Every structure is written in structure tokens, then in C-alpha cells.
Amino acid sequence: MTDLQVRKMDFAFSDYDVPFLWNPQNPAFSSMANAVSFLAIGFEKMIVQLITQAKPQITDPEVAAEADAFMRQEGQHSTAHRQHVKALIRRYPGLQQTLDAVIAEFDKLTAETSVKYRLAYVADLEATFTPVFKLMLDNDKNLFAPGDDRVASLFIWHFVEEVEHRSSALIIFNSVVDSELYRMRVAASIFRHVLQVIRVACVGFNEHVPLEERQVDALSMFANYRRGQTLRRWLPFLRPADNGTMPRAFDDLGLREQLVALGGIIRSQTPGHNPEHENLPALADEWFQRYEQGYDVTRWYTADSVSS
């Protein structure tokens, strides 16, 4: 049977305003993480619908239990990210259009693709999470600690639970589809869709969040966009979009760490990949231990100071 836990969290986003620039020391990471919140709502809604559709095809009771726990964890993530995004929409009402557009992309995917394809979609994307989130969690002092503790704690909780259920999506895919060749064959279209949805969110940020409150061009996370903007500056008859500066979210992280994460992403899409063998972030173990001890993980960096 699965050992996944379903943890309900309340990050109190309604208590006071949630800034778009929640980590003022790294505006690019703030924007990227906000895009993840928008993506998570649509993606995790799709997961819940998908597992419900796939359940009749899951004959192994242990896999069925894994699928149920995986779906319930993802449902909690979606609920928490909705509260984060709802707070941003209160401050920037136009972002409701952005959220609707992101959800519509995943609703369209659900309506127009097979269960087989969506199981591959979830397995392929979830397989990348452990190396990517390890990079982030290993650098939490730079990426999370300087920011709004509610938002930082939301992402830390979400990312450590993604590490916890790192094998779930692949277990479900193998139980129902069991074709490494198919998973590899559709990977390119899956990641194109993921980037397309993130781009929808970033375009919305540029449109609805004033530049002085986001400080960066939200589209700067896309390398081809940065190259295009640079080219426009070189050509006198073209004008670059005036959406802010274009730093990258991980500019302050070590190149070696970034290359290790990239290698993990590539490895995650190869035949025979087993997420159980991945190197895990130390912060994940610390988080689970502190949660079991009753620590207020919704205030990861400030709970001790509040309680004292």
C-alpha cells in the first residue's frame, strides 16, 4: 500500500495582501514561481479528472491506492495554489483572465486527448520535478527565505510532496500503458504544451501587473524571447518590448548545480528511469521531520519567532 500522506494546509493568504514580487531580492524567481502557481491549478485539475477516468483500467489494488493518494495530494496542492492566485487577483483583477486562459489550456487537453496521452503527460512532467525542485530546495536560502513566508512555505510544501510522490505518476502510467517508447515519443509535444501554458501566464503578468510591481519582463524566462529582445536592440528599425529587465531566476545559482539539474531532467525521460534512485534534497527530510514534530510548516522561516 502507498505511504503517501495527504496534508491539508492553510497559508492564510487572505489575512493580508500577497505581493506579486514576493521575493524582492529575486524578481525573476518571484515571477517564475507565480507562473507555477497558475500552472499548478490547471495541471492538477487535469490530474484529478485523469485519475478518475483511468481508475477502471487500474487492476492492481496497490497501484489503485497509490493513484488515489497521488490524486488527493495533487488536489490539496491545487486548493492551496488557488488561494495564492486568488490573493494575486484581488490585487490585480485582470489576472482572472490569465487564470481562466491557463485552465482552458488544460481543459482543452482533457477534452481532446486520450487517457493514454495524459498519463504520459503527467508521468513525463512529474519525472522532471525531483531534479528541478532539488535545485530550488538546495538553494532555499537564496530563493525562498528572503521572501513572503506564506508564499515561500507554499512552494516548499508543494515541492517536498512532489519529491515524496516522485514515482507515483510513472507507477500509474506503467500499470495502464506500460510503453517506454510511447512515453518518449510524445515527450516533445508534452513539453511544448507546458511551455505554452507558462507563456500564457507570463504574458498575463506583463499585461496586468504594473512594471514597477514586478520589476522584470515576465517573459524573460524564455531564452528565445531574450534572444529576440537582444536582436531588436541591435537593429535600429526594430524596438524591443518595454516590459522590464530580463534577468533569469537562477542567475545567482552555481552553474554546476544547474547543469546537474539539467542532466537529471534529460535522464528522467530515458527508458528505465526510476525516480526512486534520484538524489533528494536534504530539505525534504527536514521538512517531513519537522511536520511530524508539529512544527508550523506554513511559516517555515518565521514560525519559531512568532511562537516565541
Kindly report the oligomeric state of this protein. single chain
Mean model confidence by pLDDT: 93
N-C termini distance = 40 Å
Helix content: 55-70%
Strand content: under 5%
What does the model show?
- It is a single chain.
- With 308 residues, this protein is mainly α.
- It has one domain.
- Helix content is 66%, strand content 0%.
- The chain contains 14 helices and no strands.
- The longest helix has 31 residues, at 61-91.
- The chain starts with 26 loop residues before the first helix and ends with a helix.
- The model has no long low-confidence stretch (mean pLDDT 93).
TL;DR of this structure?
The chain is an all-alpha fold and 308 residues long.
